[in-house]
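Board notes, transcribed. Complex of a protein with tryptophan.
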Amino acid sequence: MSPARPRSLSVAALAVAALLAAAAPAVQAAPTAEAALAAAPDIPLANVKAHLTQLQSIATANSGNRAHGRAGYKASVDYVKAKLDAAGYTTALQQFTSGGATGYNLIADWPGGDPNKVLMAGSHLDSVTSGAGINDNGSGSAAVLETALAVSRAQLAPDKHLRFAWWGAEELGLVGSKYYVNNLATAERSKLAGYLNFDMIGSPNPGYFVYDDDPVIEQTFKDYYAGLSIPTEIETEGDGRSDHAPFKNAGVPVGGLFSGADYTKTSAQAQKWGGTAGQAFDRCYHSSCDTTANINDTALDRNSDAIAHAVWTLSAGTTTPPTGTVFSNTADVAVPDNGAAVTSPVSVTGRTGNAPSALKVAVDIKHTYRGDLVVDLLAPDGTAYRLKNSSGSDSADNVIATYTVNASSETANGTWKLQVRDVAAQDTGYIDSWGLTF
Ligand code: TRP
Ligand code: ZN
Ligand code: CA
């Protein structure tokens, strides 16, 4: 607080603050949409990296690569399969021939779930011949493996049947995944509720790219990143360049994550994600330096957790959250002093039609001079509803209040945002949490 602006703490202001403070914990206390489902676990980065260390050792012991038709590929398959067998998966090796050599897909089914609704997650396990292929694609393979092991640790009993896959000969033109899809009976294909693909998710100069395919899968990944306040972009580095393509071509809903290959990170991308502008996302793409040193731990960690989030969320029953559910975001967002507006997203799902005419918006902003703040609710289409104006004389701390908004002309489902702007210098604060009751 600035001494130039002494606050006058009237009895009335204190009473209002106390009242609103008493109302505020409801944001946290009421069930959130996510709490209604079993929360996905945090995937331990150390476990994912331990798999990468093993894949690196396998390459080192086998002429430096894990390529189709080479000993390093089969050894990689054996490593992953042994982990899955020990964790209670039903595993199968599917053999095919490419370029005169035998290739293998590894398929692992988690017992249970609706056999007519199958959610698949996969990654290619082969490298190119020039290197160990640790980012491409040890990263996706290790993260999918660790997610499968987390399913086993949780003894997850999802509504859908879960199937994980590690593809062979992707680098020769998606050979293994094409073989799998082509050899699925039409009836089996139609049971696939979705295929999630992870190919290069620990790039050393990472971007956060989400495939722009099935909207529900895409939104599931975007929600995860919105919760971390990390911006994502649509994957554009060659649509169809990985194992989701055969599934997509067969009409299966697909999605996935990607941290970038040989395209160059722009300065705008470096500004929002960090890293080095003017340099490739992965300078070691398809080369001998794609080793365990070629991994950004933060990207690998976040993307691994995002996979678990998607597997948990998309395999759960489509339970509509009950009326009165608070959809909330408890991630803190700093509000820059006398600066640009900031937003905090909340995604509303499972609703039909429009938002209520008396939509409750619970707001908890910590600030040392609440009069500095202009607060708006942004509907999914961007329409702004003013919750609070700035005031040079409102010197109390914090905005802890529940507002009522007539949002009946807005579609309920979608990403709503709380927008906060600090319009006067010196005092500062942050969005602590906020929520919408639908
Ligand atoms: N394994 C892919 C390849 O070598 C890597 C890749 C490039 C990729 N662009 C992509 C994967 C876009 C997913 C999406 O071609
Ligand atoms: Zn590749
Ligand atoms: Ca200020």
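The two ends are 36 Å apart (CA to CA). The first strand starts at residue 90 and ends at 98.
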